[in-house]
Amino acid sequence: MIIVYTGNGKGKTSATVGQAIRAFGNKFPLCFVQFMKSNTQAGEQQFLQELLKDKYFIGGKGFFRKEEDRPAHRQAVLDCLAWLDSKKEEARMIICDEILYAYNAKLITQEEIENLIAYCNENDKHLVLSGRYAPDFVIELADIVSEIQEVKHACHKGVKAQRGIEF
Ligand code: ATP
Ligand code: MG
What we know:
Shape: globular
Order of helices and strands: EHEHEHEHHEHE
Structural class: alpha/beta
Low-confidence stretches: none
Strand content: 15-25%
CATH architecture: 3-Layer(aba) Sandwich
Bound molecules: adenosine-5'-triphosphate, magnesium ion
Largest sheet: 6 strands, parallel
Number of strands: 6
Strand order of the largest sheet: 3-2-4-5-1-6
Helix content: 40-55%
CATH class: Alpha Beta
Number of helices: 6
Distance between the termini: 28 Å
């Protein structure tokens, strides 16, 4: 199954972690990579490190804001893809958090994502992709697509991200 969590509401990364827990509970070998996000000691990062050990990789460099940082962010994406290459064979479920953010920032190509999807389809593996603004080609190729729509978010009244809620 190719599963996508997208949309502008809060819950995409939470959904990928929830999916990982469900698969882990079923003793599925997993590999989980966080594109874009760096290690900020977020609660889920500490949890996944303990749970998945070397089957978890935090490959990102954080928010991509300045064009001059593109080469470093592209390299981080390549590192994530290389890590996936080394782990994907033994996994039954592959989880790529924020990979669609990388696509929207033009840090990963359509072909690279298509190759990953094709590999999972051909080898009977589950693939979870998350991030805002899933492109049409991903929606087309996916089996399940959930769009988390923001109805309300405290950030609009100036509430800052909080430990245990946002990270
Ligand atoms: P979550 O990680 O909570 O499941 P998400 O993966 O859907 O959310 P992202 O777009 O990855 O959401 O954003 C990471 C977190 O930052 C989310 O918890 C989101 O609610 C929060 N967030 C987004 N925009 C803001 C903002 N402007 N101020 C504070 N927090 C924000
Ligand atoms: Mg997220």
